[in-house]
Specification:
Number of helices: 10
CATH class of the largest domain: Alpha Beta
Shape: globular
CATH superfamily of the largest domain: NAD(P)-binding Rossmann-like Domain
Distance between the termini: 31 Å
Oligomer: single chain
Radius of gyration: 21 Å
Strand content: 5-15%
């Protein structure tokens, strides 16, 4: 029998459909996960506590196939994964719709100053004017990393009459190539980062890129905190050289309580919640996991697989 360690919330979705060669073990707590990890040949270690997921991989000496809902897997000990020949199947695309919804919500909140409206309600203060007057219609968004999340966001922004330009490796279908977008930064009201975290994308937004953006521009990061030079961003926000930053991700996570980003009124921090604002995450991963079981049994590579050479 092949032992699979699976999160308890997914039990109802997979138990009746698992092939008979898989012996499932379900975990509900972090201690249960760490106790079961050494037994696992197949590990679906998703929890809200990333350090425990990484530790479970370190303990998983028998692990051959790692399943995750995350599109990015940089929080795993990838040196160990590669050394042991563990295959990782990612959650690419599964969380894209709720993430896109979350971003539209947050972008609208910034445009209309909705945070100030909520604070006024908490104070029982009647506002006579809107604290935010930006209209979405007619604005332009650059999406760096025009994959599943980027395209889902573009679909929704189109409904608000926002013009979207994507950035891809190939520059196909009207998108910009990685060597083209920096020269165009000054054209956009929204600069959205949805690219994978790789050696090439580390600190892709630094002081020079922030200086090239419009003063009215908003930087949106839904990728990884490491894509942005955070010190340069703090300086740009403090000096109002860009209008605001919407940060679903930071470096590190959680952001320390004394970090200056918390104190900036034009920094909007959403604590990596965009992918969790849904009820269907386990369902999507379960369907992909079950579809991949036959491939794994036949000795084929499950899909979509993490590519160590590309870094995503």
């Amino acid at each position: 029998m092949t032992i699979a360690v699976i999160p308890a919330p997914a039990r109802v979705l997979v138990e009746a459909r698992l092939p008979d060669w898989i012996e499932p073990h379900y975990f509900s707590t972090m201690d249960e996960l760490l106790a079961l990890a050494p037994l696992a040949e197949i590990g679906w270690f998703d929890t809200v506590y990333v350090p425990y997921m990484a530790e479970a991989v370190r303990l998983g000496a028998k692990l051959r196939w790692l399943v995750t809902a995350g599109a990015g897997v940089d929080f795993f000990p990838l040196d160990i994964v590669q050394e042991r020949g563990i295959v990782i199947t990612k959650g690419t695309g599964i969380n894209a719709p709720p993430i896109a919804e979350y971003l539209v919500m947050a972008m609208l909140a910034i445009a209309k100053g909705y945070r100030e409206v909520v604070r006024a309600q908490d104070r029982r203060e009647w506002l006579w004017d809107s604290p935010g007057k930006r209209q979405m219609a007619g604005t332009r968004a650059l999406i760096v990393g025009y994959g599943a999340i980027g395209r889902e966001l573009a679909k929704r922004l189109a409904g608000w009459d926002v013009e979207v330009v994507g950035v891809t490796r190939s520059g196909s279908d009207g998108t910009l190539r990685p060597d083209q977008w920096r020269a165009r930064l000054g054209e956009f009201d929204w600069v959205v980062l949805a690219a994978p975290s790789t050696a090439e994308t580390g600190r892709m937004i630094g002081a020079a890129e922030l200086a090239a953006m419009k003063p009215e521009a908003v930087l949106v990061n839904v990728a990884r905190g490491t894509l942005v030079d955070q010190d340069a961003l703090v300086a740009a926000l403090s000096e109002k050289r860009i209008a605001a930053a919407l940060l679903d991700v930071t470096d590190p996570e959680p952001l320390p309580e004394d970090h200056p980003l918390w104190m900036l009124e034009n920094a909007h921090i959403t604590m990596h919640l965009s992918g969790r604002a849904q009820t269907a995450m386990y369902r999507g991963v379960a369907e992909r996991f079950l579809a991949n079981c036959d491939r794994y049994r036949r000795g084929e590579v499950p899909e979509p697989v993490y590519d160590h050479a590309k870094g995503y």
